[in-house]
Amino acid sequence: MTVPFFSGADVERAVSPHEAYDAVKAAFIAHARGDWTMLPKLYVTSSANGDFRAMPATGGGHAVLKWVTSFPGNPAKGLPTVTGVVLLSDSETGALVAMLDAAAVTALRTAAAAVIAAETLCRSGAETTAVIGCGVNGAETARMFRALGGEVMLWDVDAARASVVADRLGATVASSQQEALASDIVVTVTPGRDVLYPEGSLRGGQHVSMMGADGPGKAEVAVAELARADLFCDDWEQASHGGELAAGVAAGVVTRDRVTDLGRVLTNEAEGRRSSRDITLFDSTGLAVQDLAIAKVAAAKADQLDLPRLEL
């Protein structure tokens, strides 16, 4: 038995930004309706340097398991922050269908989730959009905004990195972090070690998709700001234990009744933004059903691509 392997470049060739957007949106909806199911991600912490994560899901005739790492200090060593593999199986026979580079799948579904949340929850007439953090996932988020026809400004602690990404995508570089953070729509894709929005800093009418704080102890927004905003998440079970909202839960600021799953907004079961003055915050922890959606799109094109095949 041989199985096709999708490298990062192969995943990018197989799944366009538009396809990723549509697939992840459908996954949000399928999960909200109970058609696709998943278990909360399992963190296997090895050291203070990073962690390993196992993420299983099933739906649409397939099952997936993503084994992925997050080691934020790796770029300083010339290594990627995220590494791992996505295993896609046929849910009828159990046969392995494809293996995919986890970092590329993660970047696509992170970008799609960020943009879907932004478009769903931003106020009507929002004019400016910024992506904070131009690593792999941030750059992919900017690419998706641009592919869908949006203008976007970028900011990164590494000004040269922001410039390179902006030049490649036809985006602009913000004059300062403050300019980027003041945008109508903001996507934060940082390691989550430092708070970007301290107490009192969010503006009325803003939307922020918080993508970086995807594990325990990380935060991009001060806990006090969570009390000022309308809160949304990809999955309450994950977000309340290991996402941006977890610190608010521990402090008693965030309770289940204050947080709406984005999938329920997409199925019209729950209300999204209520007024142009509201602040909306979306906490993304990353869902295995989103990885499943991307993997399915890629695997459907395996025969069209010249892929290496692994003997099992």
Structure characterization notes:
This protein has 312 residues and is of the alpha/beta class. The protein folds into 2 domains: 2-105 and 289-311, ornithine cyclodeaminase, domain 1, CATH 3.30.1780; 112-286, NAD(P)-binding Rossmann-like Domain (Rossmann fold). The protein is 33% helix and 25% strand. It has 11 helices and 16 strands. The strands form 2 sheets. Strands 1, 2, 3, 4, 5, 6, 7 and 16 form an 8-stranded mixed β-sheet that branches. Strand 4 and strand 5 (62-70) form a beta hairpin. Helix 2 (17-32) crosses helix 11 and helix 3 (102-121) crosses helix 4 (136-147).
List keywords for this structure.
312 residues, alpha/beta, ornithine cyclodeaminase, domain 1, Rossmann fold, 2 domains, 8-stranded mixed β-sheet, 8-stranded parallel β-sheet, 16 strands, 33% helix, globular
How does the helix and strand content classify structurally?
alpha/beta
CATH topology of the largest domain: Rossmann fold
> What's the helix-strand series?
EHHEEEEEEHEHEHEHEEHEHHEHEHE
> CATH top level of the largest domain?
Alpha Beta
- DSSP strand tally: 16
Determine the N-to-C terminus distance. 6 Å
**What is the residue-mean pLDDT, rounded to a whole number?**
95
Taken together, the total number of domains comes to: 2
Please state the overall shape, judged from the principal axes of the Cα atoms.
Answer: globular
CA-based gyration radius: 18 Å
